[in-house]
Predict the 3D structure of the following.
Amino acid sequence: APLSQCPSASFRIEHHHGVPISAIIFGGRRARLAPLVYEAFDWEHGVFVGATMASERTAAQFGKIGEVRRDPMAMLPFCGYHMGDYFEHWLNIGRRMSHPPRVFHVNWFRQDENGEYLWPGFGENLRVIEWILDRCRGEADAVKTPIGYVPTPESLDLTGLDLPRENLEKLLAVDRNDWYRESESIAGFFQMFGDRFPKALWDQLEGLRLRLRSPISLVQPGSELRPLAAELNETITRENPHVYAMLSEFGKRLYFPKGILAQSAEAKEKAKKYDATIGIASENGKPMYLPTVMKYFNNLSPTEALTYAPATGRPDLRKRWRDDLLVKNPSLQGKSISIPIVTSGVTHALSLVGDLFVDKGDLVLLPDKFWENYELLFGVRYQAQIGLFPFFSASGGFNVDALRQALATRAGSWKTILVLNFPNNPTGYSITSNEAREVVAALIEFANEGRNLIVVCDDAYFGLFYDEAVLGESLFAKLAGCHERIVAVKVDGPTKEQFVWGFRTGMLTFGAKAAFSTDALYGALEKKCAGAIRSAISNCSQVAQSVLAKAMSEEQCAVER
Ligand SMILES: Cc1ncc(COP(=O)(O)O)c(C=O)c1O
């Protein structure tokens, strides 16, 4: 019978461009061994899971009841060529795909010691399918076991199902000894296929046996969504689902651990004489120091010079930078922007944008005159697809038409990262007020078509404006909060504005729209940035921030500039 007669066949099967497949599910019928559901680690492991699929014979089948019958991918009776080549074919397909489907194994037939089925089956199986779909979206928790990812008891939606917790634990249990025995039976099965059997699957078997014997306890792997990250994602989704949709895979996983702040607060309270909780040795409440080091700092205390700064920077410096932004950018009056996060220079602020928003293959759009480090940063580090449009129009101004066209021809691409740098390196060009107005209108038009945009304003050279027609403030001031699909990001900082290049002090500020509270949205984005900072450089130079906070609070500082 043709597939079209199958009631559950999607109409999309006729589409010439194909159907994206998120998950492949193999099923086995095992009374003891296999958990209700588990996910393979990756494609190759998934092929191994498919190749080792097995069922125990029931009364309905010929043979001894309970005997294990292996039927790889349920294809043994149907495959018209050597099964070794068939497996190789599966492995090769995976090597060609940039996003291979995830592979799962289900077992509806697990029994308890008395031979009672632990899982109700039938329509309730949808609960497992739901977990599988959530996994594909990166939204369901799992524990890494030697055989694959198994749901945490809380991650399965069991609402309204009368399933004792004890049964759930039995359904999800992975018994190392049983599986080790299984691995020996698998080895015997693999041997049947002789020389044509792929080595990669033997390696998988060896990997499984090593994991089963490994005495180390397994921590959730990096691809898992930790509860704190899920909390931040929930906040971002509530405040602005478009911003959530634009986060990179890494951005979705980012969070800032609670422990660090809590621990250092506790130590402050309780450690009277020595405190080395967060890597700072102190003596009688003050940091320990070497006089040979401190003698170079005449007007800084050891605390200001030597201790760690918070992951997002010194609060007083952040507040000062924000206050100054409002003065330097009059259009920000009445708009909501985040409190700038201190970064290790403007370059680092740009890579935080990459961490949060850029995945391999995402489009980063640039005018064709750009600071060459963008190529290394967005192209090489984050593997973005860089798209260039001509910077100058025929009349020598900024080419707004080219920008408009570049955006228009990306039709169908749902997310674009646009990086604009004025005053521009290398041309020195600054955008005029008229061009700025046109750019903002073009971007809003683009967003109105339902496409999401991150606009990064690289204001590293802010303030070097010498012409009347030039926009005397950052484009960021015009873009912050202008559309729910546009996130404006300002990267700037004292490195160039205060002539302290080697201090490595930059700033990162967001301007976006939120459904209920921009503070909540910015708070969640800030925590994600803090996590990105914490996991790469931990925090930025305290001594540089102390000097800047002090110097910038002196009126003379602005006068000198
Ligand atoms: C456009 C632009 N952005 C950022 C930077 C880097 O700034 P930072 O030294 O603060 O990392 C430079 C040059 O150094 C630049 O030309």
